[in-house]
């Protein structure tokens, strides 16, 4: 028996397209129209067509065939989606781990900066020291003026 070579990616996209279409209202409307016309032609005999009389064995065969093909196509589409979801989850985990490592690094850097800031003079401290020195200079000037007068 000859081996049939199929591109799994192309067939997978086809399966996803079929599964996607079968999950739409448009598919349900078209199937309803198809069944109504089938029954109408075969019960009423519109235009002289009556190829599948009641109980519509051929229609049942058609639906059985459709189900036997659609179920595996839907499962194939779900499996592909599950693989994509798994890859996405792994990527999310990798990004979360990298973000966590970055946050830990930044937290250590901030802690280091805070420790070093304790050794530095703050703006308020420098202002206070300058005001104190200005007051002392002002007092010395006042004392010097009093001595000269």
Automatic annotation (TrEMBL):
Keywords: Membrane, Transmembrane, Transmembrane helix
Transmembrane feature ranges: 27-49, 55-77
InterPro entries the record matches: DUF1003 (IPR010406)
Keyword set includes Cell division: no
Key word Transmembrane present: yes
PANTHER family: INTEGRAL MEMBRANE PROTEIN-RELATED, MEMBRANE PROTEIN
Protein's name in the database: DUF1003 domain-containing protein
Lineage start: Bacteria, Bacillati, Actinomycetota, Actinomycetes, Propionibacteriales
């Amino acid at each position: 028996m000859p081996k049939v070579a199929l591109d799994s990616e192309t067939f997978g996209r086809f399966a996803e397209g079929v599964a996607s279409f079968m999950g739409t209202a448009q598919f349900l409307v078209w199937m309803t129209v198809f069944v109504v016309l089938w029954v109408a032609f075969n019960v009423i005999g519109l235009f002289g067509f009556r190829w599948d009389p009641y109980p519509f064995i051929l229609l049942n065969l058609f639906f059985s065939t459709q189900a036997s093909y659609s179920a595996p196509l839907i499962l194939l589409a779900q499996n592909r989606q599950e693989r994509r979801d798994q890859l996405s989850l792994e990527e999310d985990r990798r990004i979360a781990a990298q973000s966590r490592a970055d946050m830990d690094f930044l937290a250590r850097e901030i802690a280091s900066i805070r420790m070093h800031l304790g050794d530095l003079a703050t703006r308020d401290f420098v202002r206070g020291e300058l005001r104190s020195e200005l007051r002392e200079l002002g007092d010395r000037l006042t004392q010097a003026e009093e001595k000269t007068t």
